[in-house]
């Protein structure tokens, strides 16, 4: 790749074309496992729930990170790094919080051959690691806001079945932890960050999400409230939490004694937020856009936006002119800021290469053969809709750039259309039950009662759960009743299958 | 910072000025602990050997990372991410290698309340995590070179006394892992990476290093040879390994069965390298440049290169004009690409602010008072040599840029001069012993015998060890004898106190 291999013409081109054995519509889970492996994003590992993230995946992660990091820098948020390991004392300080994580915590009890005096946890999240220092650093109102972020790994030992990117024992994330003098500032930041998460999903990954609020049952352990960007997978009927922005209120501040002297000279608790997005983003992108040919990458996050493939074999006598043209095309595209490369490998056929880059989801494949060369054109194939377009060499850069924009746009629109077509408004338990069985994204008026939500989950044998109450609430006409309890409804809420 | 606080004029300015209680020349270890804490790089943590890295430290790490990452991208090296956790089976596969790390490995034995069936290690390094996949991915000569890098954390439970950045239980690093068809390619890459490490130290951190080769006793466990950039701390007389670039030879390839079919159709082992630099870089920078006033940051890595401080208090009636000028100066500097900020806090005095930013090591402090304003100038103070310079406002940007360049250059030159003045060439045991007691960086002809090196360490009660044999070897005149064994010398080698 990106280099020429001198033709060893005697070699065979019989490398078998790799295809997926499962269909996305028929067997979603198997399809997903196959596509992340064959698309070269993931390798399975000998510890369940741990995965190898290959460069094809990490490059996408890094593109999102660059965007997000630049945005939070504008908000004056600073990067730091707190330890991976946390003592039981620290971890157990906040009871509600640790209760949420306790079953998932990995404990280190030995170093070399020696037993540790006390077991030490691997961070499942860093609230209890960081907040003792917040208490130390914050004294007066001028120390506020304190806005920190770190990029790191966390470990949560899941008992549920692991799924690459989506539910794993270790994952990468950013975690933001901030403290403010007033609730208003904290509330505003929760929304600012939520908007960045929406942009990551919608503008970069082309995955439509709903901005909403989690119910009391599903909010972050120890938080005042949890805002979320919620995605939906039409093929499986699952709602998936995309990222959360939590207002912690003053709860942790009381526990960790994070106080400041306000302008009146009184010592008061700070208001805190925490917010995170994880490598789950990558899994959602694959689930939403992938098809039976493999990955489909949105151009904005693809480390390779266009792959140029010579439509001749190196057996043919005229291959050199085509190879030169491939290199010239890539040079042109690269200089115009398009991420492009060529595939001049001589031991793979044109068909094999097309299928290979299709599996890896490259947004645009550009083929060029002897006839194309004569006609001063190339043949482009869009990964999103398989459309083939002849492009005159004269305005190649401009048209490639346009095509990439269209692919990005189209992926989002198609995904949104699919998601929206799954939305079913229900008013009664019967309608709810039917919609759930049809794998719909259910939208229902609800009484906002914790017990009723638990009851819904019980009545569906843990099959259903609330996803979020959208921030943008439609009006609730006088007399509207909760679909589940029959009590007066107070908010519209999304429900779906529980992943 | 960077925002104005509206003057609460009744407040006192009695905040005590923080100074160091230890002197670098008198009590180096205490001085170092104080300076990393008071300079706001580090906070101590309740688990020994773990430290909180504050934004002031992480921002330096990120500047180096940006440079290094751009350089290895040019070499076609790709980022990936392998798991934190590794099974005992994987870890123990390579005997020589694990023997080097076994006493330092942290073991997870419990998740939540459940005992794991088999203990799982936290990576001390990732050779045994990655190489089973190298074996899978590499089949033919066209799969080579395979060049991966990851940015991550590793854990090594040190029995020796921990020191922030320098020797810690968890640290951040990049680890590169590459495979080649030939030894020649591997050898070349070892040197290319070593040159990048030299540039990080010399061009960015202004820390002089010696490029050399480790002895057999000190090479990376399981490697063929280890190249190093070696730094020296004049105040303590310690040599410190700055970063290593290892050629692993074919040793791991045999163990992990990493083979490729060469052009003759034979299955042969690949040649491998691994290389890493860590957050130790930050500690070395502090140790070399810091002084009794606190940190001294080289401009190229300082997240804040110039701090602008109004030389009026907000009690005075004319402060507004000065405050406005401070903001204008920062705007000018920032637009010219200089990392600048102002400190308009009204609850700290001019003296306090000067001392504060001096402690934090900001390369240039720019003060401006009413008289300065009238004379259209500012007063700059260099952190490296305390020189005060009046700069006419008219060519502020140009002069600030020049000053920053000079500071960077001067820090390196002063550090190199200090280091060089510690070098002592010795030819006999008596000279060696004397130089060691004087904390010198000892340069001696040596017989390159492992047993002799162990003997040197024993004879000095573990006080001395070899640092490296410089790649650039002076000639060894006929008849030159080893300083320790009296046998014929074969190479020049640096020795020093063992940290």
Give the helices and strands, then pairings.
2 copies of one chain form a homodimer.
Chain A lengths: L27 H11 L3 E3 L6 E3 L1 H20 L3 E2 L5 E3 H4 L3 H7 L4 E6 L2 E9 L4 H11 L8 E10 L14 E11 L2 H22 L5 E4 L11 E9 L4 E12 L1 H5 L3 E3 L5 E3 L1 E8 L1 H10 L16 E5 L8 H17 L4 E3 L7 H10 L4 E5 L1 H5 L2 E6 L5 E5 L3 H27 E3 L3 H9 L3 E6 L3 H10 L4 E7 L20 E7 L2
Helix pairs in contact in A: 2-6
Task: Explain the overall architecture.
The structure is a homodimer of 499-residue chains. With 499 residues, chain A is α+β, with helices and mostly antiparallel strands. The first copy, chain A, is built from 14 helices and 23 strands. Chain A has helices at residues 28-38, 55-74, 88-91, 95-101, 127-137, 183-204, 251-255, 280-289, 319-335, 350-359, 370-374, 396-422, 429-437, 450-459, and strands at 42-44, 51-53, 78-79, 85-87, 106-111, 114-122, 146-155, 170-180, 210-213, 225-233, 238-249, 259-261, 267-269, 271-278, 306-310, 340-342, 364-368, 377-382, 388-392, 423-425, 441-446, 464-470, 491-497. Chains A and B meet through strand 2, helix 2, strand 3, strand 4 and strand 5 of A and strand 2, helix 2, strand 3, strand 4 and strand 5 of B. Strand 5 (106-111) of chain A pairs antiparallel with strand 5 (106-111) of chain B, so a sheet runs across the interface. Chains A, B: It catalyses: tRNA(Pro) + L-proline + ATP = L-prolyl-tRNA(Pro) + AMP + diphosphate. Chains A, B: Its EC number is 6.1.1.15. Chains A, B: Keywords: Aminoacyl-tRNA synthetase, ATP-binding, Ligase, Nucleotide-binding, Protein biosynthesis.
